[in-house]
Amino acid sequence: MISRLIFVLILLTGLAPEALSANVKSGHIYVNQSDSLQIEQTISEALQLSRAGDYEGAVKLLNQADSLSRILNYSVGIEKVVSRRIDILIDRGRYDEAVEKAKQAIDEYPESHEISQYYNLLGTSYDYLEEPLLAIQNFEIALEIEQGSGSDADQNFIAGIYQNLAVVYKSLGEKAKALENFLLALETAQKTDQPQLLTVINNNLGLTYSDNDEFEKAIYYYEQSLELAEQINSKIDLYRGNLNLANTLSSMERYEEALARYEEADRLWSELRPNSPPVIIIHNRGKTLAQMGRYSEAEPLLLESLELSQQMGIQEGVYYNRYILGKMYIELGRAEEAVYNAEQALNLSLGSGNPTLISDSQNLLHQAYAQANRYEDAYQVLFDNKVHSDSISSLEKERELADLESRLEVTRQSDINRLLQEKQVQQETQLRNQFIIIVLAILFIALILITLFLMRKNSREKEKILSQLQTQKEELELLNEAKDKLFAIIAHDLRSPLTSMQGILYLIKDDLLSQEEVKALIPEIEGSLQQNMDVMEDLLAWAKEQLSGVKMEIEPVEVSPLVNDIVSSQAFLAEKKGITVNYDLSTELKILADKNALRLVVRNLVSNAIKYTKRGDKIDISSSQNNGNVQIEIKDTGIGIPESATDKIFKSKSWTREGTNNEKGTGFGLSLSKEFVERMNGRIWFESEVDKGSSFYIELPKHE
Ligand code: ADP
User: Is-above-0.90 flag for pTM?
Assistant: First the structure.
């Protein structure tokens, strides 16, 4: 009874919003609003007719709406007609056909606005075919589709689906789920403020709680339902609410209140159906009065209801009245009447095949026979009851088993869903964790890289500083070495000639030398002085070069006067050793050089030539030109240089010999000369043969 009521309501509410929104351009034909409204109205009228039981009339109107929709290519109309046709099939109890049509519609119009309705109708058909699992499955699809349609979602329709789900769960004995869905239906319907819908949902909630023996809650929802019914002045809902409330009050033994409600229901019924007597209400009042022990008032009512039921052919009504009458007569000790009514009840129950009714009436008849002292009959009926109970219990067992199985299936499915959800959540968490780990790892690696980079940079800077320090250290060491050399040279090379001169000066001072002897010593002193001055000059140049780095000032230098100058300053030494110095240099020959450096180099070479030649030897100084360069050659016929010393003589201090007249050597004149020449972009080299002589060459750029 519940599901029927709900189903009617879903269709009613599902139609209204779409009926106003049909203005669809489709194909080449424009469907104007009046056409679409006409179609919607025809469909709506068809619905009214089918509600009133005029299925043929309804089908005719639907055919019209369908034809018109097809002519106008108005797909919304076509798809709605399909829904209404399935609806009528369900109304007429042709559930298998309804299932086929609904499936066909789902295949044919998968994109339709009606798609959720098709699933809902499919679910409803399955519910009637007692396929609760398939019903639930399809209701859930309908729910998902409708909820997924966002702001277009029809909340009333959603509420209806929740109700349908609740009803199926109720039939499965899943009380908690049934209630949950009823409450969801209520919550959803409350959003839309549809008192008609809310009235029905509240009534259904009342029935559900009442079935669960939670009477207080049942009363609360019935009262809500009644209040809403009052607001919209729906007599049928007021009647239903009062009747259901009265039944609940009666179950709670609040008989007086129950009677008042029955009276109200009675009044409403007479308004609603003036020509149809209230068989049920009369029976319920009689039953309540009987329960109160008010048998004299109960009896006429039960008899009246019995008669009306018989007249109207309501077998169920006849049964219940006979049953309650039988029960009452046992209480009153009217055994014969009790037996008669119980027998009638049993016959009817056997006819209905309802095992509970059969069992109840057998028990009643057994009591009646016993009261009438018909023990044999009592025994027989008790025996029948036993056989029947056994068959019932096996039937019940089967049913319980089936129930259990379907419940298990529902639980299993919800378990699977739950597990899947849990797994999904787990996977999501896992993915999130992995993501976090990856991000952290990347950050960590980045941190390490940055640290490494900084460390490397740091160490590079350190290395740089270290190498700078090393260079500075080496420079300092070199400077120190140079300083040591300088002091050594000064101590050795300058000191001894100066000491000998000092000795001579003392001799002169103390008049220990004669005029002639002094005169004879002067060339000695002069030579010694010249040597010292040469050494001094070398030392100063070298020290300057070593300690501060000499800056070359390259300029055009006239070669001839420079050589002339040097030879003049050395002439005395050559003369003293009996060596001839010839030089032949073209005047006006200019080279690019630093004047002082060039002077030092040439003087060194001339001085060496004198130093390493013997009496009677000669020195030739000449110049030549070659590829924009000028070569100066200082050639002697002296002792020469052994081959083994070739690689050493240009290296500072690595090889030195005393001169032919025991002149001291410093061993760095040539190395200094080489360095200076190269810094003036020139080169220096020599050719020599032992005991034959040597030729030293310097080559420098010519100034044009
Ligand atoms: P020093 O002459 O003070 O020893 P040098 O660097 O000027 O230092 O010369 C290095 C050495 O090369 C000399 O000791 C000498 O043995 C050799 N040398 C240089 N010039 C000549 C030369 N014209 N003839 C022979 N030997 C020479």
Answer: no
